[in-house]
């Protein structure tokens, strides 16, 4: 396992601790919100570092193509679910924001499964829209953890990019499936 993949694995392993801090948080245990913030920020930094290392040292691998987005999805889904109205925090994501984020990821995951079943292979590459979505979701989750009033502005931007990237990934998925169908029908 290369160093970039070890960093991605670290990010995946931080998720249960991050979620536990959010589950057990209460105003009397403010330190848990701060600990969740530290864990989240370290995980976000690790995302940037593992991508940089993989590109610069040409350590991109099949495992990395799975571990990196898996780490992002687990971290962000945990943040959006456990920073929703079920949390004890005064400022949290509205349920509709959480629903949009989770729905997009579920649709993408379903599409990946369908494409893999049809093609028996999958090439997962993030798009510019996907990268912008991840960035703004991470920023908005960080701001909610900080209980900053700027969070509302940034979660609106995150929702817009989430919708744009969702439509883009669906379009790309259908294009991939149609390419497979036209290849088969020409034989």
Secondary structure layout plus pairing:
Blueprint: H1 3-24, H2 30-56, H3 62-82, H4 95-119, H5 128-146, H6 151-185
Helix pairs in contact: 1-2, 1-3, 2-3, 2-5, 3-4, 3-5, 4-6, 5-6
Task: Describe it.
By secondary structure, this protein is mainly α. It is built from six helices and no strands. It has helices at 3-24, 30-56, 62-82, 95-119, 128-146, 151-185. Helix 3 runs antiparallel to helix 4.
- Protein structure class: mainly alpha
Predict the CATH topology. Answer: Four Helix Bundle (Hemerythrin (Met), subunit A)
Low-pLDDT windows of residues:
none
CATH class: Mainly Alpha
Distance between the termini: 40 Å
Count up the helices. Answer: 6
Tell me the total number of β-strands: 0
**What is the percent of helical residues?**
over 70%
Just name the CATH architecture.
Answer: Up-down Bundle
Q: What gross morphology would you assign?
A: globular
Count of discrete structural domains: 1
The ordered string of helix (H) and strand (E) elements is HHHHHH
Rg (CA only): 18 Å
The major sheet is characterized as:
none
Mean pLDDT: 88
The percentage of residues in β strands lies in under 5%
What are the key terms here?
single chain, 187 residues, mainly alpha, Four Helix Bundle (Hemerythrin (Met), subunit A), 6 helices, 0% strand, globular
Question: How would you sum up this structure in a few lines?
Answer:
With 187 residues, the protein is mainly alpha-helical.
């Amino acid at each position: 396992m290369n160093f970039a993949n070890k960093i991605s694995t670290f990010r995946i392993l931080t998720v249960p601790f991050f979620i536990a801090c959010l589950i057990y948080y209460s105003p009397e245990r403010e330190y848990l919100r701060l600990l969740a913030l530290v864990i989240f920020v370290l995980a976000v930094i690790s995302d940037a570092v593992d991508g940089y290392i993989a590109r610069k040292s040409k350590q991109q691998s099949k495992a990395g193509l799975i571990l990196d987005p898996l780490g992002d999805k687990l971290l962000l889904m945990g943040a959006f679910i456990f920073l929703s109205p079920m949390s004890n925090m005064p400022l949290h994501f509205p349920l509709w924001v959480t629903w949009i984020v989770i729905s997009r990821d579920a649709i993408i995951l379903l599409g990946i499964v369908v494409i893999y079943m049809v093609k028996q292979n999958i090439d997962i590459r993030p798009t510019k829209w996907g990268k912008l979505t991840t960035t703004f979701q991470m920023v908005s989750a960080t701001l909610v953890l900080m209980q900053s009033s700027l969070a509302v502005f940034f979660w609106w931007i995150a929702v817009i990019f989430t919708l744009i990237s969702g439509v883009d990934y669906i379009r790309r998925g259908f294009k991939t499936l149609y390419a497979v169908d036209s290849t088969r029908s020409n034989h």
